[in-house]
Amino acid sequence: MKRFKIVAFLAIALHFVGCDIDRTPYDSLTPEDLSGSEGSLQSVTDGNYARLKTMALGWHRVMEFGSDNLSLSGTTTSHLFNLYNYQRLEANSLTTSFWTNSYQVIASCNKMIETVEEGKSDQSNQLLGENYFLRAYLHFTLVNVFSKPYSHGSAGIGIPIKTNSDPNQIPVRTSIISVYEQVLSDLNKAVSLLNQKKSNAYASKEVAYALLSRVYLYMGDNQKCIDNANLVINSGRYQLLPTQRLASYPTIRPEDNTETIFAVKFIPNADLIDAGFSNIGSIYSVIQNVGYGEMYASKPYIELLRKYPTDERNKFISPVYLNNGVVTGLYADDAFQYKSLKLTKVNVNDYSYLEGSTTRFLEKETGPDGRISYFANLSSGTRKAVTIEPEMANRNGYPKYYIIKCSNQENQPQLWSPVVFRLAEMYLNRAEAFAKLGENEKALADVNLIRTRAGIPQNGLFSANALPNSRPVLDLVLDEDRLEFAYEGHRKFDVFRNKRDMDRRYPGTHLAGNTPISIIKWSDNNIIELIPQSQMLIHPGLVQNPL
Questions:
Q1: What DSSP line would sit under 356-419, residue for residue?
Q2: 344: three-class secondary structure by DSSP
Q3: With 0-12 CB in 10 A as exposed, 13-18 as middle and 19+ as buried, what is 474?
């Protein structure tokens, strides 16, 4: 593949400005040749990390926009709309950029791996290990975006594996299991070489263990998932942020965040793209007049989140209220459009509303944990779940549930360093693996640890002897994953690899047009992206994904 040419890593070159340590690892000079000096090797490795930052916007959209946590409030000609509504395009600029950038970094990693002499020094071993890790992570991410999940059949068609820097060596697609085997080989090699405890902007042994935990979880090797999660948890390098600081997670400088294992580091001022309007969080919110604020938290996600008002994760959602004293009950009608009822508070927990000239009352249901849910019995004979809110601002009829989980780093409105791994994932990876091994008490202990940290009271914790609505433990784990990792790129993969359907029967413009897709079956071909058309044209033997 000509796009693999090694000159790609030279294109990352950025002139080094001063010696400000806060600007590393992303603003170092990439030399025109690899002399073998540790300084030049470090610079090229820094360039590989920089490419991750360059691709972050498209990367995030490819992984996140197909989830059921999002509600787009309008249509657009941007290819993000195709990611959001599962209408795939071979010429999608975002998937093309993701593919191309990923392989450019892989090509640069290959050049480093071929050039660096193993065992020459601790520093050269560390740099070599970092490049093995990056190559593993990008192959792993590519195979999950462009190939079916491992759980759907490991013999299925994977992605091209590129492990050398020869631009004339053009790999073809191989099996999914072959890609996973290459990923595991690279990660085990990385573990053997990584010897420094650098900041969480760089790879370390624990970062490699974190990816191994995720890879084994996706493969269904549950015990190895647990073993690698334990290596991270027991390392002592990371601590969950305390409850009172959880809501500030995205605002903290990555190096100062005790929970982050690995992040793509963004730097204040230097990485505000178009003054912040082109950063990841800009589509989710408007903060200090920066951002577009066109894609909001979905109705089912809000309902799941609102079960416990004390849950600190509620603070990642910032509703835009009109502050006019009006209280409303929001619900979705049979066409999955938002509707609202003007409510009158009768007493502490009771509300009335007018339907025509008839006064009606919201129904209440009190769950075993003491939580009250509200329902409206409409004159049409339908019963709708209601979310009680002060009257909200809206765009095209969609209430503005701004998402601020990808914003406000170091007090800059749309700055954010995307989190790749954090300690909470290790606990919930372990919980999912325990659930699949039938060790329900251990699984729920990990889930309850995360729920307690989130601020959920004792009556909201789970017991293996009294599961809510007799739900399987795995369902509870996946719900917790959804709550904890919303807008971090996990949800779509978690649903489909567990052979669950994605239910998008809720308000949003994914249901616009003549052929909307409201339920995406786990077995559908469109759960994976099409290989970019530009690559099909120049890459002999590259097979397209089924339509």
A1: TTEEEE-EEEE-TTS-EEEEEE-TTS-EEEEEEEE-B-EETTEE-EEE-TT--GGG-TT----E
A2: strand
A3: middle
The residue behind tokens 């669950």 is: 500
CA dist., res. 145 & res. 158, Å (int): 10
**Counts for the chain of helices (H) and strands (E), in that order:** 16, 19
Which one-letter DSSP state was computed for residue 21? G
pLDDT single digits (tens) 156-213:
999 999 999 888 888 999 999 999 999 999 999 999 999 999 999 999 999 999 999 9
State which amino acid sits at residue 527: I
Query: Kind and range of the H or E element at 174?
Result: strand 173-175
Q: Omega before 25 cis (within 30°)?
A: yes
What is the Cα–Cα distance from 353 to 506, expressed in whole angstroms? 23
Is the confidence at residue 12, as pLDDT, over 50? no
What's the rounded Cα separation, in Å, for the pair 368 and 365?
A: 10
Residue ranges of E strands in 224-366 = 260-263, 295-297, 317-319, 327-332, 338-347, 350-355, 358-361, 363-366
DSSP string, 347-363: ETTEEEEEETTEEEE-E
Quick one: which of 540, 491, 547 has its CA closest to 70? Answer: 491
3-state secondary structure of 175: strand
Asked if 492 contacts 66 with a C-beta cutoff of 8 angstroms, the reply is yes
All residues at 6 or more sequence positions from 189 whose CB lies less than 8 Å from its CB, including other chains: 129, 132
For residues 375 and 283, give the distance between their C-alpha atoms in angstroms, rounded to a whole number. 31
Largest CA distance in the chain: 84
- pTM for the model: 0.93
pLDDT at 26: 25
Q: In a 3-state reduction of DSSP, which class is residue 457?
A: coil
C-alpha–C-alpha distance, residues 291 and 214, integer Å: 33
φ/ψ of 73, rounded to 5, equals -100, 5
Residues found in the chain: 547
Residue 190 near residue 173, CB atoms below 8 Å: no
Could you identify the residue written with the tokens 């640069």? 108
| CA 75 – CA 69 distance, rounded (Å) | 17
Phi, psi of 199 (to 5 degrees): -65, 170
d(CA 23, CA 448): 38
CA proximity to 427, closest of 477, 468, 474, 462: 477
DSSP tag of 287:
B
Tracing tokens 């058309």 back to the chain, one arrives at: 533
For residue 298, give the nearest of 486, 27, 529 by alpha carbon.
486
DSSP tag of 297: E
DSSP annotation of 241 reads P
